[in-house]
Amino acid sequence: MGRKIILDCDPGHDDAVAILLALGNDNIDLLGITTIGGNQTLHKVTYNALAVLEQAHAYSVPVAAGCASPLIRELETAPGVHGDTGLDGVDLPKPSHDVIGKHAVDFIIDTIMGNEPKTITLVPTGPLTNIAMAVRKEPRIVERVKEVVLMGGGIHVGNWSAVAEFNIKVDPEAAHVVFNASWPVTMIGLNLTHQALCTPARQRDIESIGTPTADFVSHLMDFFRKSYAENQGFVDPPVHDPCAVAYLLDPEVITTRKAPIDIETKGDLTLGMTVADLRAPAPADCHTQFGEKLDVDRFWGLIHDAIAHIGEGIDK
Question: Could you tell me which residue ranges the Inosine/uridine-preferring nucleoside hydrolase domain spans (predicted)?
Fold first, then answer.
């Protein structure tokens, strides 16, 4: 059995790759996918999650739809980056399965409370609304979760404002709840994920696998490259979300640094900023850390191997 995770996401091109990375490695036990309004509306990203599982023939992974909007704010989506569907650029397979009859927040709580303490890792790669709601509804999950490894934020870098990353800025109040809970938090932010660029050479390496899923990922990257060039000024697109899964597969892929991290929820210019205190070594009881340096070759090797492992489909 692999490491047990719940992937809370808003697919999203890079979320789709994160799902495939988790599916294609036997060292991950993907207990379920929970969805959150973010890159696109909840209905669209939930459909996308089901379609990605269909692409990989991963029929037994449950999907639970979660919160459609942030705790107190209106939802912001990112069609300029991910298109009208959230996964523009590919013909999505029609899902043969539907979501389970349980809200994502309840799925998260029930799964954590139903397993041994410190055996489940939460991997949020979208806004943190579902996770914050689960903490508020059942605070005991905080002491039972092994750790939270999230894609969001950034150290001195933003993409949805000068200083704020999309996932955090969409629901900064939820992020404040998650970062201030006492569980271990590893933040995989833009300062790290901007090192995970899908260059043409990396894309050709994936294409060389020669399977339908490899072609699926390559077409995703074609659209992602174009949208990032037009909207974010990147020549090659950064593939953010798989970095969080890669860290769980091989911690040596990412060099981390401990630091107190909190979320700005009130600033007119700094709303959603992840504020890391780097003035001195982190105190002994610091429960937050951030990714600092990516081993790029090892990272893309994990993605290549996972897609190759999926092959024509994993039938599980």
Answer: 5-300
